[in-house]
Amino acid sequence: MTPGSHLAANYAKTAMLMGGLVALLAIGGHAFGGERGMLMFGGLGLVMNFVMYWFSDRIALMAHRAQEVDRHEAPTLHAVIERLTRRAGMPMPRVYIIPSQALNAFATGRNPGHAAVAVTEGLMDALDERQLAGVLAHELSHVRNRDVLIATIAAGVAGLISSLGYAMQWGFMLGGGSRDDEERGGGLAALAWIIVAPIVALLIQMAISRSREYQADASGAALLGDPGALADALTTLERARGVVPYDFAGPATAHLFIVNPLRGTAASIMSLLSTHPPIEERIRRLREMRV
Fold first, then answer.
1. Looking at residue 290, what DSSP letter applies?
2. Can 139 be counted among the known catalytic residues?
3. Rounded Cα distance, 79 and 81, in Å
4. Which tens digit of pLDDT belongs to each residue from 207-252?
5. What is the C-alpha to C-alpha distance for residues 30 and 40, in angstroms, rounded to an integer?
6. 102: helix, coil or strand?
7. Are 260 and 254 in contact (CB under 8 A)?
8. Domains in the chain, CATH or no CATH each
9. Catalytic one among 35, 82, 129, 139?
10. Rg (Cα) of the chain, in Å, rounded?
11. pLDDT, tens digit, 9 for 90 and up, residues 73-106
């Protein structure tokens, strides 16, 4: 896939996600409150589309307690990112550090001019500058490929739909539906939505193809000119993932990270719908790359 076709595909997926959000909320609103509920929830979907497009990066950063740092607070981090962005011809993104000893990183933002890169404290401590550059080249490739737009919006869509499903579940349990609604089948429709909504949220996340990680690995390795740097970093991250848990992990944003931050039962379940390809395969491909 050429860079232009990849960008077009990501914009098309973004439009589908945002349109799907409005449709799903309208259906859920109709099941829960008839025509009035459909209009109310459909309107909520339009508002949420606006919020997610313009502010989803800030929401993601806040969810992970990320703190912005300048070049005086994190000189090595800034120096590596500045070097890579100059080489890629990209604007300098905002730089954040996440207060966690887990080893991970993610990028967010709607386009290269409004992007942010966040790394954990543990990543900064564990990797040398060469490996750190490999991770950052991968994340900047996501920014350049516009992967972060669809990834961040998908996180917001998934989280919103899951929250709606759980809210409707409690409302149904507490007797939120009227007798007339139940007579029209509204109670059954609401119950069906309660069951389906979390599943739909996971399926929406599947709109983010595993191939985006392979592509970012390859693009980042080419940008840095050293595929082994990211391969070594991924080896270190995978070893640490089973030892040091990530403090703020959640399924709605797990796909944003360079390696899956989930552990235990959640990780086992999410692996069935994982947007992350196997680490071993990513490392193998990087080791075989020639740049």
1. -
2. yes
3. 6
4. 566 778 898 999 999 999 999 999 999 999 999 987 888 888 776 6
5. 9
6. coil
7. yes
8. 3-61+150-205 (no CATH), 62-147+209-288 (3.30.2010.10)
9. 139
10. 20
11. 999 999 999 999 999 999 999 999 999 999 999 9
